[in-house]
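Kindly go through one protein, given below as sequence and tokens. The question is how this chain folds according to its tokens.

***
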Amino acid sequence: MAALEEEFTLSAVHLGAGPDGLLGVEPSDRADQFLVTDGGRSVVLYKLSAEVYRIYSTQGTEPIVLFKEGAVRGLEALLAEPQQKIESVISEEEVIRWTKIFMILRHPILLFITEKHETYFAYVQTVHSHTLSKYTLVLGEEKALIQSFTASMDRKLISLITLCSDGSVYEALIPTHPSDPEKTQRVVRSLLLKGIVSGNARNGAAVATLDQDHVAVLGPAPEASKECLSIWNTKFQTLQTSKELPQGTSGQLWYYGEILFMLHGKFLTVIPYKCEVSSLAGALGKLKHNQDQGTQAVTRFVSWETSQECFQNSEQSKRILRRRKSEMSIQPEAPASKQLLSSIKKDSEKHIEVELRKFLATKRTPGCHAVIGDIVTGLLGRSKAEPLFYPRNCLAQLIQTCALSYSLCPGLMEVALEKKDVQILQLCLQHFPDIPESATCACLKLFLSISDSSLKEADVHMESVSASSDGAPEERMEQQPGAVENGSSPAEADCAAAANGRPPGTREESASSPVLPKRAALLNAVLHSAYSETFLVPHLKDIPAQHVTLFLRYLYFLYLKCNENATMTLPGIHPPTLNQIMDWICLLLDANFTVVVMIPEAKRLLLSLYKFVKSQISICSELNKIEISFRELQKLNQEKNNRGLYSIEVLELF
């Protein structure tokens, strides 16, 4: 359910839209402040070597400059060298029509749409990695011109929604990380809403994405041709609420938070709105809610069986709802699993996620394991047939149902390894009880070899890593043995460590983790996995020596962390245990000792492990001696009943 609240005037705008009128609305640093720019103010722009299209300012990063030829630069780099050569990204006669910037893990991603001879292109620029991807928007049989753009984003897809001159709203899903960035790829759009705006919009129309299932549309309604602001549910294709605008609009619409901005007559008007969680009852107007005065409570029903559409008043709507309810009771719906399997074959990834949520909300049956396995098989089959289709979110939700296993869907980890999807692999290691040793070792190879830049963008569960074990900014190799540090040799440092009660060889290893936190979380998932030593050791021999050394350094770091407290445990929600750490150290040395011992970088690590084990043996020997004395004390304690009320005892320990 959605509702528009009471509007109020923010400021007067005496000029019309365009370069001399209202230029834009942007949020300020404070939640209750907004920046409004019109033609009555000016900004001094010092010319660079190319014409600037727009400058973007985002919190936490430097301003981003987009040039009219499609090049993207950081403002600091431009100010340092203003006359640098700016390349042309877009072709001749290609014009930028719309842009938007997104933030993913504090990294900006810029989307800009261009048009050339009524053909539209989408460019996705990842600023920090300087990766540019180009897509051609396939309009299909409908050749209507695009009047307005809006977009939303998750970590892997951009949902580009367009309002066209035929009054319909379309959606195109654009990947943020394409399989082949060098090639121009085609993106097919799908119809979301049909004929919701009149084609004779005098001042244009606009669309804005409010959340995953709601859009706001500004323009004349097709029935009365009066300009209005409306909110539509794209999931169920229903009109939720609308408000007439008798003084007319400029076809411009902005939204920030839960506030809509628009020109109504000569005034900039603010309209707060509310969008509830999308449900069938809310979309059909059956949820109880309060309507503001002046808000037209009209619900539009779309028949999924036919293409006919009808508008009804509230009394007629109630009769339709009663009739549909009786029809639904006579004709039960198909099972959610069959609807989902059918949707996987042909629908968009966003629609599949909606059907998956419906399926997961149903009550589990005894055969649900096989059904979930079929769903995963269907998703993987389509992913292999369509390289751009990779439903990571759907796969992650299915894995976390704990109803899957490796034997039920063996192709899942194979596809994840091929795509280097560490998020899916981590979930498989955490939830699959029957992963073979070859797959576990393949995951370990990937976790040790994947680049830091790829890890920063990955969505990894960090519950097994504590904040105190964060790694250094760079994963550096150990220094050569014999190097002098702070005026003392390694041997002298070991003596100092022993004098302070620490085992030798721990002066540097225990300071910080040799791997980044996300890599540590992935390696911890491997440590928790089940295995058979007989079958695992042959696969461990295939790991490169430098990666074996890195893993040994991390295990040694964990071992030192365990020895820092009396409980011999690591902090965190689900950290590796001391037994798991020691078992994996032994496995790696058994499989690769003859190779590791020949690596100069690993010599110091092996010496530290040797000294540490030797010191532990010495400590255990001393503890055994103390244990004998404790036993004698316990015997004496048992004989205390034979003593009087007061006594002085002298115990000698040798």
Notes: The CA atoms of residues 49 and 83 lie 5 Å apart. DSSP finds 17 helices and 25 strands in the chain.
